[in-house]
Automatic annotation (TrEMBL):
One of the protein's GO biological processes: Mo-molybdopterin cofactor biosynthetic process
Protein keywords: Molybdenum cofactor biosynthesis
Gene from which the chain derives: moaB
Organism: Kushneria phosphatilytica
NCBIfam families: moaB_proteo, molyb_syn
Protein task: May be involved in the biosynthesis of molybdopterin.
Name of the protein: Molybdenum cofactor biosynthesis protein B
Upper lineage: Bacteria, Pseudomonadati, Pseudomonadota, Gammaproteobacteria, Oceanospirillales
InterPro entries linked: MoaB, MoaB/Mog-like_dom_sf, MoaB/Mog_dom, MoaB_proteobac, MoCF_biosynth_CS
Annotated GO CC locations: cytosol
Metabolic or biological pathway: Cofactor biosynthesis; molybdopterin biosynthesis
Zinc-finger recorded as keyword: no
Length: 176
């Protein structure tokens, strides 16, 4: 895995925190994702916190999928099995193409941090209307793992042999 000498192309990213209790001041996971994406040179296009309600989640993600200014959507929260966790059910139906390997890789990497508890993560990803959607758990550690171990490279248009950035940047193609 390498990075080419080509110029970095920043992406416009929306961050959606799904929680019945968090606010802008207490949303550490959303803040971590924003800090990481900005540190990597991407742009925060939208940010919102909404309750864990499948219809509100689906409506917001669908709105952002239809917005040409949003290239990537990161959600945090609602991917477990407790309470009102409903992100997978709300978002999966919107995918044109699911990215099965994202959840599989996320759980594999998370095993180092949380052991067998990783089987309770329903992290998932997909593509819809030329927009990448990544649904991460609500914990700060899980968001850190998702960003630093997967998204940091996959949203970098220079990452070789392939990356998601080149699938969504107009006029770009995969090399390799």
């Amino acid at each position: 895995m390498s990075t080419s000498d080509a110029a970095f192309i920043p992406l416009s990213i929306a961050v959606l925190t799904i929680s019945d209790t968090r606010t802008i001041d207490t949303d550490r996971s959303g803040r971590l994702l924003i800090d990481q994406l900005e540190q990597d040179g991407h742009r925060l296009e939208r940010r919102e916190i909404i309750p864990d309600d499948p219809y509100r989640i689906r409506a917001r993600v669908a709105d952002w999928i239809a917005d040409p200014a949003v290239q990537v959507i990161l959600t945090t929260g609602g991917t477990g099995y407790t309470g009102r966790d409903s992100t997978p059910e709300a978002v999966r139906v919107l995918f044109d193409h699911p990215v099965e390997g994202f959840g599989e890789l996320f759980r594999q990497l998370s095993f180092d941090d949380v052991g067998s508890s990783t089987v309770q993560s329903r992290a998932l990803a997909g593509m819809a209307n030329n927009t990448m959607i990544f649904c991460l758990p609500g914990s700060t550690g899980a968001c850190r793992t998702g960003w630093t171990r997967i998204l940091h490279e996959q949203l970098d248009s220079r990452h070789q042999p392939c990356n998601f950035a080149n699938l969504i940047i107009p006029g770009r193609t995969q090399h390799g």
